[in-house]
Automatic annotation (TrEMBL), chain A:
Pfam families: Redoxin (PF08534). This is Periplasmic protein thiol/disulfide oxidoreductase DsbE. InterPro entries: Periplasmic_diS_OxRdtase_DsbE, Redoxin, Thioredoxin-like_sf, Thioredoxin_CS, Thioredoxin_domain, Thioredoxin_ResA/DsbE_sf. Belongs to the thioredoxin family. DsbE subfamily. It is found in: Cell inner membrane. One of its GO terms (cellular component) is plasma membrane. Residues 36-178 form the Thioredoxin domain. One of its GO terms (molecular function) is disulfide oxidoreductase activity. It comes from Thiorhodococcus drewsii AZ1. Coiled coil: none annotated.
Automatic annotation (TrEMBL), chain B:
The chain crosses the membrane at residues 111-129. Keywords: Cytochrome c-type biogenesis, Heme, Iron, Membrane, Metal-binding, Signal, Transmembrane, Transmembrane helix. Pfam families: CcmH. Residues 136-163 are annotated as: Disordered. InterPro entries: C-type_cytochrome_biogenesis, CcmH/CycL/Ccl2/NrfF_N, CcmH/CycL/NrfF/Ccl2_sf. GO terms for cellular component: plasma membrane. PANTHER family: CYTOCHROME C-TYPE BIOGENESIS PROTEIN CCMH (PTHR47870). The keyword Cell membrane does not apply. It comes from the Bacteria. GO terms for biological process: cytochrome complex assembly. The lineage of its organism: Bacteria, Pseudomonadati, Pseudomonadota, Gammaproteobacteria, Chromatiales. Residues 1-26 form the signal peptide. It comes from Thiorhodococcus drewsii AZ1. This is Cytochrome c-type biogenesis protein.
Length: 181, 163
């Protein structure tokens, strides 16, 4: 009697396990595609600066300290949404934020910075998606954490808000900043 | 009576205009041709087998996303330079991951994907065979004496004969 009763519970168990698995799947975001570049050296680039068109920016920017490389564009609403948070991060923390202005045009990009402030220490101007393709960018905003040796340590897809900053980005920056000093 | 019709006509005209403008901007594969038709064919085949990361259920060939157009241009440029199909695929996988492939490679992280279905089928077959085996082992119960008698009576009844 007990064996047949417990045997009858097996399908229920399988059902519950399957339901739990599928429920977990619901919480996953299919848009967040893990980047194969994490823990690899950041791809080289040589592009003009957005703010000073005659200056060429290269990967040397990323050496020596942990950087956030933030992919943004003036046409991207989520970038505007995250802009205030980037301003706050730049103000309150000692982390250099490098902008990668992506598939945008110079006047509109500069206008956005004029209106909403400029959290970036340097901005790479990539209107033709050159560096974007090398970095595996497929949407904006995206943010890479690059350590002082120029290795990509994390990729955030989608806007950064305070919660993302505190729980996801800041711990990684602190880990790799500590390693340096 | 005339005015509403005119208005409707004007609206229809505007709408058609908007649609025309919309389609004028659509990306097509027409701009990507090679002197060698076989290469053009290969290009179309390749972009049809790569996945667009923005609109994930579309191939690179069919997607209207601007990133897809950039990648089509890149694939086209590489093929013009004489890069092989494998080199193009490696280039994209290096940057975007296996996700760009509709046909993911067999490696430890995809074992479940590739072999999971066989495991399920195997497990199902095992359960099925075992149940059938059990059934065979339990012989069907014979009729008791009284039941046998009743059966004989029923069969012997003339009314039950089939014609």
């Amino acid at each position: 009697m007990t064996t047949s009763a417990s045997r009858a519970l097996i399908p229920l168990g399988i059902f519950l396990a399957l339901a739990a698995l599928l429920f977990y799947g619901l919480g996953q975001n299919p848009r967040e595609i893990p980047s194969p570049l994490v823990d690899k050296p950041a791809p080289d680039f040589a592009l003009a600066s957005l703010k000073a068109p005659d200056r060429t920016l290269t990967k040397d920017l990323l050496r020596g300290k942990v950087s956030l490389v933030n992919v943004w564009a003036s046409w991207c609403p989520s970038c505007r949404q995250e802009h205030a948070e980037l301003m706050r991060i730049a103000r309150e923390n000692d982390v250099q934020i490098i902008g990668l202005n992506w598939k945008d045009n110079r006047p509109e990009a500069l206008q956005m910075l004029q209106r909403f402030g400029d959290p970036y220490s340097e901005i790479i101007y990539d209107p033709d998606n050159k560096t974007g393709i090398d970095w595996g960018v497929y949407g904006a905003p995206e943010t890479f954490v690059v350590d002082g040796d120029g290795i990509i340590r994390h990729k955030r897809i989608g806007p950064i808000d305070q919660q993302v900053w505190e729980s996801e980005i800041r711990p990684i920056i602190e880990r790799y900043s500590a390693k340096k000093s | 009576m005339m005015r509403p019709t005119l208005k409707a006509l004007a609206t229809a005209g505007l709408l058609t205009g908007a649609i025309a403008i919309g389609t004028a901007h659509a990306f097509t594969l027409e701009e990507f041709t090679f002197e060698d038709p076989a290469k053009t064919h290969e290009f179309r085949d390749l972009v049809g087998k790569l996945r667009c990361l923005v609109c994930q259920n579309e191939s690179l060939a069919g997607s209207q996303a601007s990133v897809a157009q950039d990648l089509r241009k890149e694939v086209y440029r590489m093929m013009r330079e004489g890069k092989s199909r494998q080199e193009v695929v490696d280039f994209l996988v290096e940057r975007y991951g296996d996700f760009v492939l509709y046909d993911p490679p067999i490696k430890p992280s995809t074992y479940v994907l590739w072999f999971g279905p066989f495991l399920f089928v195997g497990f199902g077959a095992f359960l099925l065979l075992r149940t059938l085996q059990r059934k065979k082992e339990e012989p069907e119960q014979d009729l008791s004496e009284t039941e046998q008698e009743r059966l004989r009576q029923l069969l012997a009844k003339p009314g039950n004969q089939q014609d």
